[in-house]
Amino acid sequence: MVLGFLRSSTGPFLSSEIAVDLGTANTLIYVKGRGIVLNEPSVVALDAGTREILAVGLEAKKMLGRTPGGIIAVRPLKDGVIADFEVTEKMLRDFLERVLKNRFMPVRPKVLISVPSGITEVEKRAVRDSAESAGAKEVYLVAEPMAAAIGVGLPVETPTGNMVIDIGGGTTEIAVIALSGIVSDTSIRVGGDEFDEAILQFLRKTYNILIGEPTAELVKMTIGSAYPSDRGEEVMEVKGRDIVSGIPKTVKVGSAEVRESIQEPIAAVVDAVRMALERTPPELASDIVDRGIVMTGGGALLKGLDSLLRENTSLPINVDEEPLTCVVRGTGRILDDPEKYRGVLTLSRH
Predict the structure, then answer these.
(1) pLDDT at 283 over 60
(2) Structural domain boundaries of the chain?
(3) Which pLDDT does position 24 carry in this prediction?
(4) Which pairs from 64-70 meet CB under 8 Å and 24+ separation?
(5) pTM above 0.85, yes or no
(6) Contact in structure between 18 and 98 (CB atoms under 8 Å)
(7) Pick the CATH number of 3-147+327-344 from 3.30.420.40, 3.30.1300.10, 3.40.50.2000, 3.30.1370.110
(8) What would the pLDDT profile of 45-97 be if each residue is shown by its tens digit?
């Protein structure tokens, strides 16, 4: 099963064999020998009537909340899994065509895709079918926390315990890894999207102002935090539409308010980390005390989240320098050295 992925008639890996981090918020693609060649939002703009694709990726994201009646901008993945199969297939096809620089793709690529560790068999099948429909010759899957651990350079093949917290747009994956396998894992469908939604609802209830997803994300990135900062209170002007009058208005929002508004999803992440630690075998737990925990994914960029987890676990928390690309870097390393990482392809195609 895995051996077919490790061998090729013209060498171990061709340039048409690629790794994909198919995320709720962003899709990243790695091509062997070229590195990360695509990093685009997982957003598609469609004609409302014909369902014809009008834009994919960054161009489509610019349309979120701004489209006329005849155009809809959608995110086809939700909570780390495919919510709209047809649109996901079209999005993936567009991305594959871009990176292979060939509209007709005479060489169908072999594709390695990272998926949340907690998804069901039906959801795995949807990912495989979507990639095959988009033009992939063969599709293989690897668990996101495993790919993230490999991406940050952890020695996953050794008996030493390594713990990774991967916070994406739709899911938070927490895994303890040793001997090329996930010893214990906790997966919750809470991530950056829930932070954005909490901010959106807070502004609606507190200030009677309606904002869109892009504005909520901007607020999170600008003044959002999980832990009080030494810099003190930060204030940001937020523009939206008044619920009562319907007229555009601007309000000033403080960082403490935003921090309070996202307490519920943040608490869910903290509880999941505690649960994962409780499930960890004692011998591996001692390794984690020595080595600490590595945070990856876009959610790791939320200011103060590492400090909050450090306070709640009394363990060292390390944030990777480029948390957004950890997973795709890891899948890329599997392509680069398939023999070393053959044991991690536990979710390979049947």
Answers:
(1) yes
(2) 3-147+327-344, 160-190+267-321, 192-263
(3) 92
(4) 64/212, 64/213, 64/214, 65/212, 65/213, 65/214
(5) yes
(6) no
(7) 3.30.420.40
(8) 999 888 898 999 999 998 888 878 889 989 999 988 889 988 999 898 889 88
